[in-house]
Give the backbone structure.
Amino acid sequence: MPLTIRPVQNEDHTAWLPLWHAYIAFYKGSVSDAQTALTWQRILDPAHPLQAWVAEQDGVLLGFTHAFIHPSTWSDAGYCYLEDLFVSQTARGQGVARQLIETCAAWAKTQRADQLYWLTQEDNHTARQLYDRVAQRSGFIHYKHAVGSCV
Ligand SMILES: CC(C)(COP(=O)(O)OP(=O)(O)OC[C@H]1O[C@@H](n2cnc3c(N)ncnc32)[C@H](O)[C@@H]1OP(=O)(O)O)[C@@H](O)C(=O)NCCC(=O)NCCS
């Protein structure tokens, strides 16, 4: 069966949730159940900027990406930030993430966004092998400064 990349639907929640947890575990991160529920609610809310696509094959969800367009002082239409990208272990190396990124880029183009960009960890060599093929490094370095409970 061909791989399908499509927007997330309400019925995907049961399959999306373990992928989301595996993604957070990959980062050794922690996201509360309340935040997870809010994120899911925002994904489904057509009035919220957050967008999500899933990769599906034979009725099985293999991965997802989440992105949103934000305002920019340099651009009328804004920039699209791809915040999350995950492909399940058994589906890796087959171009699933590449197709998720390309779908997001195509959508950003329809929204007339001026740029699609994302961050990754320096030592995420697997992801960077893909990113070096499909995108250009920006040359910017990412800093963060504590402003609340999240740092
Ligand atoms: C990073 C990640 C999303 C890549 O997903 P994927 O579906 O395996 O990636 P793809 O198959 O689309 O990779 C596309 C290209 O990268 C190459 N690639 C991917 N994984 C590779 C690996 N482990 N070794 C060598 N090359 C690799 C593929 O050969 C492919 O190149 P090609 O299309 O020119 O043949 C996946 O490994 C993942 O979910 N990792 C854990 C979470 C994560 O790191 N997310 C990204 C956070 S920034």
